[in-house]
C-alpha cells in the first residue's frame, strides 16, 4: 500500500503519526507528492488533487484523512482511538473542533500566500478569529480529555505544530498554557519527531 503525503500538510502528518503509532509502517510505503503539480497519475487516484491519499492493496484509493484514519484503525484492529463511552458525542465534537482548527489554519496559510492585492482582510480575520475561539475552547476542555494517544490528541498535536510552522505570529502558547504543557510532552514522541516538516 502507498500513502501520498507532503511534509507540510497537517492532514498528512496526522496519518503519518497514526501509521507509526499503530506500527503499520512496514505495510505502507510513504510517497512524497506535490498536489499542486497536478500530476495525472495522482489526479487519477484523487480527483480532488489533495493529500493525504492512500492506495490500498487492491489498488483502490482512499481519501480524505478521516476515512484513511478509519481504514488504518480497522487494519490494525484498534478501535479505541476514536474515544467512546458516555461522553462519546463530546469527544466527537472535540475531534471535529481539532479538524476545523486545521482547516482554518490551512485556509489562513493559503490567504497569506496570495499576492497582496488578492488577499481578503475579511477572510483572513475570520480564520484568525475562528482559530482564537477554537483554541480557547480546547484549552478549557483539555483537562477533561483522557491522557494517551487517540484521535483528538493526534489532531491537536498536528494543528499546534502547524501553527508553529506556518503562523508563529499567532503565538498560541500565550493563551493556552495547558495545551502548551501537553504539547511539549507529546511532541517528544518518536512518531512526532519522525514526521517533522523537513
Ligand atoms: N479534508 C481533507 C483536506 C486535505 C487537504 O486540504 N490537503 C491539502 C494539503 S494541506 C492539499 O492537498 N491541498 C491541495 C489543493 O487543495 O489543491 C483531508 O482531511 O484529507
Tell me briefly what this model is:
The protein is of the alpha+beta class and 198 residues long. The protein contains eight helices and four strands; from the N terminus they run βαβαββαααααα. It has two domains: 2-75, Glutaredoxin; 88-189, Up-down Bundle (Glutathione S-transferase Yfyf (Class Pi), Chain A, domain 2), CATH 1.20.1050.10.
Ordered list of secondary-structure elements with their pairings:
Layout: E1 2-5, H1 10-21, E2 29-32, H2 40-45, E3 53-55, E4 61-62, H3 65-75, H4 88-113, H5 121-141, H6 151-166, H7 177-186, H8 190-193
Parallel strand pairs: 1-2
Antiparallel strand pairs: 1-3, 3-4
Tags for this entry?
single chain; 198 residues; alpha+beta; Glutaredoxin; Glutathione S-transferase Yfyf (Class Pi), Chain A, domain 2; 2 domains; four-stranded mixed beta sheet; 8 helices; 54% helix; globular; binds glutathione
